[in-house]
Amino acid sequence: MHRRRNVKIVATLGPASDDYKMIRALFETGADVFRLNMSHGTHEEHQARYEIIRQVETDTGRSIGILADLQGPKLRCGTFASHGVDLEEGQMFRFDLQDKPGDHDRVQLPHKEIFDGLENGTHLLVNDGKIRLRVVGHGEDFADCEVEVGGTISDRKGVNVPDVVLPIAALTEKDRRDLEFACELGVDWLALSFVQRAADVAEARRLANGRAAVLSKIEKPAAVNDFEEILAVSDGIMVARGDLGVELPVQNVPPIQKRLVHYCRAAAKPVIVATQMLESMIESPVPTRAEVSDVATAIYEGADAVMLSAESAAGKFPIEAVSTMDAVAHEVESDETYRRVLENSRIFERRTVADGIVSAAREIAVSTDIKAICCFTQSGTTALLAARERPQVPILALTPLVRTARRLCLSWGISCHLIQGEVDRFKVAVVSAARAARESGLADDSDQIVLIAGVPFNVPGTTNILRVAPCAERLIYATDPE
């Protein structure tokens, strides 16, 4: 089954999408990758969902990607004797390490690392930024703050510290257990939360040890500032706009999103735009016009994927949410403006032979009647480079590795076709590509395809050959050398 769109859809699973019937319906409606949110649910629940996804994959004969999203550190205040107090603008309020119920003047903040990183003038945001405090005095176990924006602070509300890089590791002990569980289970992607610097990604990569690709969630100002270094050590990126919109002025988020998508495209690494894309569909079968425009904007920017969170995990209308995203994608991608936007934002820097090969493939597809760009790939790199070009024709990735096929489910415009065994001769490669194009419904005997490969075969990073080939096998055998 070939999706007749380029952008991919990531759907989060949860209580509203917990059985075979629903998960298969989500897949058939348009979900390409399923997200397991490790912040909620038990290992047993996630394993059951994983097994259902793999059963759907077997039953439909199409690769499905699975992303495990690690929780990361959760910074929360303590409890109150009265379960909550009202803070007023201008009053003083203290956070400290004392393990006792809070009152109108103070509350516990059980994270010593926060106090270690504070400076006078640092802001503390509580309850998704609804309450804003500024540090005016601090020590190793307390922070005296002036309330700038008041409100009700209650038990265990979240605390954000946007102004400083905190000395807190991105992986907690829970995350390490969840990471090992997810890798042993066989997930394709790991999403790493609370990334502040490139070094935060190193431990996750070491623990994953190649068993899953690592995707960094950009949700803190420090990560935006260090983005190019983070991108260099990540396999993919998620623009997690929820926390970004808390820790930064909301008007900063759209240009940041656009910039990060551009950097990811240049690096040929997949990027997901996430958070609150169709938020109203948690309760309503119809989205707001603003939400539809938000999804469309991400697609116009050339994002690899757009993501549903609570809409598909806990909402009342998970199928409708996926269907809406699918419909928006089809409409945007059929708009001539979409193609002009992608053309105007193409990355022209070419440094390697592989860069030149994929660029030439795109140019040939533009100027001649080519139905698909087919590429043989072991690691997925060739297909990712082809996707970076955002060609007008589908990209068909042929690989003997199911792991590679599943990871590529997240990337723009790529459909995967598993081949049996390794290809060791060029004619076999051409025949396999033509057969895959026909079986996928992308071409018929009268059509032509562009084939990209590396010789010698089965060696990652050797993309060095381009061939325009007919789809009819009789023509291939009549014209192709051994």
Number of strands: 21
Report the average pLDDT across residues.
Answer: 93
What structural category arises from helix and sheet content?
A: alpha/beta
The DSSP helix count reads 18
Specify the oligomeric state: single chain
Distance between the termini: 31 Å
> What is the assigned CATH homologous superfamily of the largest domain?
Phosphoenolpyruvate-binding domains
Can you name the CATH architecture of the largest domain?
A: Alpha-Beta Barrel
CATH top level assignment of the largest domain: Alpha Beta
As a whole number of angstroms, the C-alpha radius of gyration is 24 Å
Query: Which sequence of strands runs across the widest sheet?
Result: 1-2-3-12-13-14-15-16
Low-confidence stretches: none
Supply the number of structural domains: 3
3D shape: elongated
What fraction, in percent, of the residue positions are helical? 25-40%
- CATH third-tier fold name of the largest domain: TIM Barrel
Task: Give an account of the 3D structure.
The chain is of the alpha/beta class. The chain has 3 domains: 8-72 and 169-335, TIM Barrel; 84-160, M1 Pyruvate Kinase, Domain 3 (Beta Barrel), CATH 2.40.33; 353-479, Pyruvate kinase, C-terminal domain (Pyruvate Kinase, Chain: A, domain 1, 3-Layer(aba) Sandwich), CATH 3.40.1380. The chain contains 18 helices and 21 strands. The chain has helices spanning 20-29, 43-60, 112-117, 173-185, 199-208, 221-225, 227-232, 241-247, 253-267, 289-300, 310-313, 318-333, 336-344, 353-367, 381-388, 402-407, 426-439, 473-479, and strands spanning 8-13, 33-37, 65-69, 84-87, 92-96, 106-108, 123-126, 131-139, 142-149, 151-154, 159-160, 189-192, 213-218, 236-240, 271-274, 305-308, 370-376, 395-399, 414-418, 448-454, 463-470. The strands form 4 sheets. Strands 1-2-3-12-13-14-15-16 form an 8-stranded parallel barrel, surrounded by 8 helices. Strand 15 (271-274), helix 10 (289-300) and strand 16 form a beta-alpha-beta unit. Helix 1 (20-29) crosses helix 2 and helix 10 crosses helix 12. It is elongated, with a radius of gyration of 24 Å. The two termini are 31 Å apart.
